[in-house]
Amino acid sequence: MKYPFWINDFDRVGKKYTNQYPLSTEVFKYPSSFWFGDNPKKPKKHMEGSIQRLIQRAKPQLPIFVIYNIPNRDVGQYSKGGAKSREDYLDFIERFSRGIGDSEVIVIYEPDALPHSTLLDKEEQEWRLSLMKESLEYLTKNTNGIFYVDVGHSNWLEPKVVGELLDRVSNPKVRGFSINSCNYRTTKECIRWGRKVTKYREDDYFVIDTSRNGNGPKENEWCNPIGRALGEPSTCETSHKRCDAYLWIKIPGESDGRCNGGPKAGRWWGEQAEELVKNFLKNED
What does pTM read for this prediction? Predict the structure, then answer.
């Protein structure tokens, strides 16, 4: 699998930040993803148009999209939110699907939603997995997207458990799964873990989020750990045949939440962006 990645050609954070943190602009010299989720108080009525404009702008390259709107998102933690009901979520999925249509795009489906299901009681877990399965069936039937279901990071669940969860939600049209979204585990560790998962999912391929794993993790800290670095930019030149690509799924410089001095989850944090770039450049020397 060889993906022609797109590097966006417009300012994604605004001159206020780029003027104050000029080194942070280095982040956007590499392909990174675009995240889609609804504000329950103000749904994105024109989401389809936004998606279509990005696709047209990217052609003939492929953009990377992330669906992040599952009800009870992030199980009430820093990125809590998501759709309010099953009906709202399925409406969001239908609108997202209309935006993609027949265009070929890479889609990461619901970071952490699958592993977080293990924290729910049995009834809530069944409800979530059923919703994910229905949504993925709709997406793969009605679009030409290339889908990877997010399964968390390599220091979370046992590979066998991941395989069993994927059996509950995936379908033959789903390309595979994504690893390490928004985390810091090393690429080498993720490759080893991903290979173990594929023993239970023999037709699956996987991608790894390398956006901030250049220095690996800081123990098990997942929320704005200091001293991290950008990882290898998006590429299909990976170290294993079952790994389709290294991708920048999490946008480097966006906060994990109000921890270690960071702003609200998803907000641009210039200081962190510059630290990630500086440490990346140091590693390159």
Answer: 0.96
